[in-house]
Design brief:
The protein is an alpha+beta fold and about 100 residues long. The chain has one domain. It is about 35% helix and about 20% strand. The protein contains 4 helices and 4 strands; from the N terminus they run βααβαββα. A hairpin with a 5-residue loop joins strand 3 and strand 4. The chain starts with 5 loop residues before the first strand and ends with a helix.
Length: about 100
């Protein structure tokens, strides 16, 4: 697999039901993520969560999903849970981004 992986970053308060919904959907479709070299990052579980919120301009505790390209740039952002098929369509069409 060439270069750095892409990332799907899930920002939310730990108890936010949308967080669980999104993470469960991505876990269920884990094989598709692995095939595309995509890492799923649950920001609520990270010690650097506040720094990541600042870096990606996300209000702490607000549900946000961001697709990050291989170059570290933001490809897309959502404020509600996303169908995994939408992620894969964007990833497949990003031409290595």
């Amino acid at each position: 697999m060439a270069g750095d992986p892409r990332s799907v970053m899930v920002f939310a308060a730990p108890a936010d039901p949308q967080r669980r919904e999104q993470l469960d959907a991505l876990a269920f479709d884990g094989a598709a993520a692995a095939r595309r070299d995509v890492l799923v990052v649950d920001v609520a579980e990270r010690l650097d969560a506040l720094a990541l919120c600042d870096l990606y301009r996300v209000t702490p505790g607000v549900f946000t999903v961001i697709l990050i390209g291989r170059d570290g740039g933001e490809l897309e952002r959502w404020d509600e849970p996303v169908e995994t098929s939408e992620f894969w369509q964007l990833v497949d069409g990003s031409d290595g981004g």
